[in-house]
Amino acid sequence: MDPIDLDPFEALVRTAVGALPQEFRERIENLAFSVEDWGSPEDFGLTGTSGGGTLLGVYRGVPLTRRTSGYHLTMPDSIILFQQPLQRMARDADHLAELVAHTVRHEVAHYFGISDERLRELEAY
Fold it and tell me: Disulfide check for 107: which of 16, 73, 79, 83 has CB 3.0–4.6 Å away?
């Protein structure tokens, strides 16, 4: 598929966030969504993704299940979607929207403390 500009890509992310079930959207606090071209070496290390692997997004923060009473007055956690690998995987605009939505759901699951292992058990991949 032909690459798209940042603004339409960010619109796909906003749409995907807006499509999350209300009971999840209502529980999201202090979380920022953004777009970067590619994951950094730190992102690959954080996710355990090999250097030759494909990284579509990352959650940077402290999952809700690991927060203690001392977790306050902090900068927002963040979910970053990586535009270039998502675009390269997409067959067309509809497929790109599906990939973005799946990546948003996946990273939001990490925000709620759900591991990759548990996501596999739930067949959410």
Answer: 79
pTM of the model: 0.90
CA distances from residue 59 to 2, 4, 55 in whole angstroms, order as listed: 27, 23, 11
- C-alpha 120/C-alpha 125 separation (Å) is 6
82 domain residue, yes or no: yes
* DSSP alpha helix (H) spans, the chain: 6-18, 22-25, 41-47, 83-89, 93-111, 116-121
Q: Label residue 125 by pLDDT band (50, 70, 90).
A: low
pLDDT for res 52:
75
The domain in which residue 12 lies consists of 6-64+74-121
> How would you label 24-63 residue by residue, b for 16+ Cβ within 10 Å and e otherwise?
eeeebeebebebeeebeeebbeebeeeeeeebbbbbbbee
